[in-house]
UniProtKB/TrEMBL annotation:
This is Glycerophosphodiester phosphodiesterase. GO terms for molecular function: phosphoric diester hydrolase activity. Signal peptide: none annotated. It comes from the Bacteria. GO terms for biological process: lipid metabolic process. It comes from Nocardioides pocheonensis. Residues 1-237 form the GP-PDE domain.
């Protein structure tokens, strides 16, 4: 998955989460793109990581306090607008999106957008906020894939097998999306991957930019790598005969 479109690709530094970045990833052959979403004051859902505009744009201040018309004047890298999530779905119909809910109101706005565009099978949704993720699941009635919330991840990794299977049945999620380690504690091991697969759950690892680590994780059997270095990951997958250019 192209993290924020491939935020550290040499051609894209400073242009993360722009339509240009996502088109760049798609041109490389990526069909799975990762982004974050926030909501403007007038409820427009936009692809942006930070709660404030200062780091990435020509404007400053909290994104949530701005109207969509005001946000439209901001520029990333001096030239690129902050894209709406609706624009990304329309402009890249061949791609699927992994979407991280970053702000209050994003769950409702995304659920509405998915319903309006019929994009139920084009997105997987996650969040560090269990409340926001549960709200999205409630609004979409289980019709959209989600990743496990942080508390669900912890439970999955530590609970006995009967309890894990009950968790997956009761609160269905399609994937564990986790870092390789939390501090010194390894989270992604061969046994964790096998346990997830036995439960019908994918394992996606973020954010992996080192080619050696990519190979190690692939050999553990993970299902997805989320990377800022779309160039490096494509090279690794190509060398291993795993890259598939799709129409």
């Amino acid at each position: 998955m192209a993290h924020r479109g491939g935020a550290l690709h040499p051609d894209l530094v400073g242009l993360e989460n722009t339509l240009h970045a996502f088109r760049h990833a798609a041109a490389l052959g990526y069909r799975y793109l990762e982004t974050d979403v926030h909501v403007t004051r007038d409820h427009r859902l936009v692809a942006f990581h930070d709660a404030v505009l200062d780091r990435m744009t020509s404007h400053s201040g909290p994104l949530a306090t701005m109207l969509a018309e005001e946000l439209a004047q901001a520029r990333i890298g001096g030239a690129h607008a902050v894209p709406s999530m609706a624009d990304l779905l329309e402009e890249l119909p061949e791609c699927r999106f992994n979407i991280d809910l970053k702000a209050p109101g994003a769950a409702e706005a995304l659920a509405d957008l998915v319903d309006r565009t019929g994009a139920h099978d084009r997105v997987c949704v996650g969040s560090f906020s269990s409340r926001d993720l549960q709200e999205f699941r409630r609004l979409t009635g289980g019709r959209v894939a989600t990743s496990a919330a942080p508390r669900e991840v912890a439970y999955f990794l530590t609970a006995s097998w009967p309890r894990v299977t009950r968790l997956v049945r009761r609160r269905p999620f399609a994937a564990l999306q986790i870092p390789r380690k939390r501090g010194r504690l390894p989270l992604v091991t061969r046994s964790v991957v096998r346990r997830a697969h036995a439960a019908g759950v994918h394992v996606h690892v973020w954010t992996v930019d080192d080619p050696v680590e990519m190979v190690e994780l692939l050999e553990l059997g993970v299902d997805g790598l989320i990377t800022d270095r779309t160039d490096v990951l494509k090279d690794v997958l190509t060398e291993r005969g795993l890259w598939r250019d799709q129409p």
